[in-house]
Amino acid sequence: MSLFAPLSLLPAFFVAVFAAGSGQAVTTLPRPESTGFSHPKPAFDVVPLGVKGGLDESNLSAYLVAPTGSQDFICLDAGTVYSGVRQAVRQRVFRESAEAVIRRRIRAYCISHPHVDHVAGLLLNAPDDTAKSIYGTEACLRVLQRDYFNWQTWPNFGDAGPAPSLRKYQLRTLAPGEETSVPTTALSVRAFPLSHGPNYPSTAFLVRYEQSYVLYLGDTGADELEHSQRLRELWQAVQPLVAAGQLRGIFIEASYPNEQPDNQLYGHLTPTRLLQELGVLGQLTGPEALRGLPVIVTHLKPTSANEATIRRQLAAANTLGLRLIFPRQGQRLRL
User: Fold this and answer.
1) Is residue 192 in some structural domain?
2) Between β-strands 188-195 and 180-181, what pairing exists: parallel, antiparallel or unpaired?
3) Residue 4 within a domain
4) Which residue spans within the chain are E strands per DSSP?
5) In a 3-state reduction of DSSP, which class is residue 286?
6) CA-CA 20 to 30 A from 62: which of 204, 225, 250, 334?
7) Using one digit for the tens of pLDDT, what is the confidence trace for 267-316?
8) Which residues of 56-76 are buried (b: 16+ CB within 10 A; e: fewer)?
9) d(Cα 132, Cα 143) in Å, to the nearest integer?
10) Which pTM value belongs to this model?
11) Pair 101, 125: CB distance under 8 Å
12) What letter would DSSP give residue 26?
């Protein structure tokens, strides 16, 4: 049986539509001829399991990614897992139960940093999960094993640490910049360091399928405020992919509106800071290369009128011509 409900052939729209005869919610993306970004068919299926940056514990950062049509996903961050999969099942993205999707279809986790809003779903679902790998930097995995999988905060589902080690999860270190194939999938991943507040590391994951890529950034502050060159170094690394049209999308956060004081950003971005950083990428590629590039805006703090304000501020200042996408939990994107 196919994992996905069937899709009918539809024109592309910015908004979510329902595939004829299936009721399946799917977000498709336009490919205007006037932009620098155009592909005849998608390369990746993305299922957002959680898209917010706090407050709602049932909707925290987590994104399933697989080659289009594949049943073998990796999960980029895991703040929310079960609630997000249930939403996707309700919207007929998956034919199987939520439990079956988690156990059989999530092949591995890639964790950008071990803050609780990025790992809570992984921890809570561990007792009912199947054996699989967790990928991350050495610093990230050290915190997972020491501070969570320690028989005090949570049972030791890791493969080291206090006895008994249940070894359900194999913690696999990603060396910065080195590509690692993810077993039982057609995907490879490379990790790049980010700065998420003073002396606190986060990670970007560059995911490859054949000759196509998506770039997922965990929480990050702007280089100027972080006194860092992490984002510039990341843009330099992906610049050839953007220029060649191989980068299918960038997942990047905008946690707060522009009114948030710099000293209260806590290693996050505003619309102005996000667009400034992507402007640096545009300087490297030439601005035309960014026109129409899908930018999936993540980690919005769902407090007060933040979300509406962030959307409005991004749209008003989008002189780069980016294709801004605001993902919805459980609704599949194709890139």
Assistant:
1) yes
2) antiparallel
3) no
4) 16-18, 25-27, 44-50, 62-67, 73-76, 106-110, 132-136, 169-173, 180-181, 188-195, 201-209, 212-217, 247-253, 294-298, 323-325, 332-334
5) coil
6) 225
7) 999 999 999 999 999 999 999 999 999 999 999 999 888 999 999 999 99
8) ebebbbbbbbbbeebbbbbbb
9) 18
10) 0.90
11) no
12) E
Q: What CATH number does the domain containing 139 carry?
A: 3.60.15.10
| CA 253 – CA 204 distance, rounded (Å) | 11
Of the candidates 51, 207, 202, 173, the residue with the CA atom closest to the CA atom of residue 121: 51
Specify if 6 maps to a domain. Answer: no
**Residue 191 phi, psi (nearest 5):** -105, 140
The predicted-structure confidence for 6-50, as pLDDT tens digits, reads as follows 333 233 333 332 232 333 444 444 333 334 566 779 999 999 999
Segments of the chain scoring below 50 in pLDDT: 1-35
Report the C-alpha gap between 263 and 252 in whole angstroms: 20
> Which residues form the domain of 68?
16-334
Distance in angstroms (rounded) separating the CA atoms of residues 164 and 157: 9
CB 233 within 8 A of CB 197: no
Give every CB contact of residue 314 below 8 A, 6+ residues apart in sequence. Answer: 254, 271, 274, 275, 297, 324
For residue 119 the two structure tokens come to 């790992």
Q: Report whether 220 contacts 255 (CB < 8 A).
A: no
Number of domains in the chain: 1
Residues 6+ apart with CB under 8 A from 40: none
Contact 294, 38 (CB under 8 A): no
Edge-first strand order for the sheet with 201-209 is: 180-181, 188-195, 201-209, 212-217, 247-253, 294-298, 323-325
User: Alpha-carbon distance 89 to 146, whole Å?
Assistant: 34
Query: What CA–CA distances, in Å, run from 94 to 25, 26, 182, 277?
Result: 11, 12, 22, 36
How crowded is residue 194: how many other Cβ atoms within 10 Å of its Cβ? 25
